[in-house]
Amino acid sequence: MEMKKWFAVIGDPIAHSKSPSMHNAWFDDMNIDAAYIPLHVKGEALEMAVASLKTLGASGWNVTIPHKQTILPFLDELDSLAEKMGAVNTVVRLPDGRLKGYNTDGAGFVHSLEEVIGMDKKDQEVLLIGAGGAARGIAFALQQYGYHKITITNRTVAKAEEIIAELGEGEAVSTRDAEDSLNKFGIVIQSTSAGLANSEFKMPLSLEKLREGAIAADIVYNPLMTPFLISAQQKGAEAVNGLGMFVHQGAIAFNYWLGQYPNTNNMIKRLTDDLNQLV
Ligand code: ATR
Q1: Cβ proximity of 134 and 219 under 8 Å
Q2: Catalytic residue among 5, 18, 68, 100, which?
Q3: pTM for the predicted model, two decimal places
Q4: pLDDT above 70 covers what percent of the chain?
Q5: Superfamily of domain 106-241
Q6: Nearest residue to 150 via CA among 127, 180, 122
Q7: Which of 163-172, 198-207, 246-255 has the lowest mean pLDDT?
Q8: Is 201 in the pocket of ligand 1 (CB under 6 A)?
Q9: Omega of the bond prior to 20 within 30 degrees of 0, cis?
Q10: pLDDT in tens, 140-197
């Protein structure tokens, strides 16, 4: 008899992760005999945790803060996008037992964006706000999916310049320059922690000159409507919240593990209801 498959998410903190309920709901919906559990793993315990997951036969797991970069030396193989990003959020145990790392965050963002705006807007000028780990993943994924007019702006411009240099195309600009030229962008992506519940920091830049009909996407999903999205909507933009990115990064991981793409629309609806009930 085949052993029951099991999966996990490792991170610190981990208690508030929505990944276990999402993946377990998909297993139920799809009649897959598997389980997904949250595991609290502190920084110094990472190497032993990976060895344990391997020994105990986990089929795969997700990796969250603070392990996305530090897990790299403990893996046997990296997908090319994960290698470029220098960060992993999904591990797959291959049939021969070797561990392969993927990063589905950036692709999750692009899937979520394209679910709303379609796949025919790749020639638009894109402004990416922020140059942290999340921005990096999104920048490389946008490029891989065919978006080549990418401008990155960040409080610390040098970090935006670094990502642009690695992409080998696009432009890095100051916050001021991004605000002044805002009307040229058809897609504006907010990838900093601005607007996150409990964050003091609300807006990464002024949307005064945002083009009417532009797409404004945020990676934050708690709250669903961030100050950035509210302000963008007031300027006549179409808002894409961060929940789709979360659900699609999970769906892409699920597909790497099990070879099936789960129903993302239903999950987005379900989680939207949950989040609205919190308000
Ligand atoms: P993540 O992995 O979530 O992207 P990160 O790597 O710490 O997190 O990146 C945080 C991003 O939010 C950065 O772009 C950061 O700008 P700096 O590179 O200048 O630090 C941005 N950020 C955080 N707090 C900010 C603030 N108060 N004002 C403007 N930008 C801020």
Answers
A1: yes
A2: 68
A3: 0.95
A4: 99
A5: NAD(P)-binding Rossmann-like Domain (3.40.50.720)
A6: 127
A7: 198-207
A8: yes
A9: no
A10: 999 999 999 999 999 999 999 999 999 999 999 999 999 999 999 999 999 999 999 8
Query: Which CATH entry fits the domain spanning 5-103: 3.40.50.300, 3.40.50.2000, 3.40.50.10860, 3.50.30.10?
Result: 3.40.50.10860
Determine the atom of ligand 1 nearest the C-alpha atom of 175.
29
- Reply yes or no: is the peptide bond before residue 223 cis, omega within 30 of 0: yes
Q: What ranges do the domains of the chain cover?
A: 5-103, 106-241
What's the token pair of residue 224? Answer: 């669903």
> Which of 103, 138, 155, 161 for mutating ligand 1's site (highest number of atoms within 8 Å of CB)?
155
| In contact, 151 and 179? CB cutoff 8 Å | no
Nearest atom in ligand 1 to 131's CA: 14
| Number of the ligand 1 atom closest to the C-alpha atom of 192 | 12
Cα(129) to ligand 1 centroid in Å equals 9
pLDDT class for 231, splitting at 50, 70, 90? very high
pLDDT band (50, 70, 90) for residue 109: very high
Report the C-alpha gap between 147 and 56 in whole angstroms.
Answer: 41
Query: Fold identical between 5-103 and 106-241?
Result: yes
Instruction: Specify whether 68 is catalytic.
Output: yes
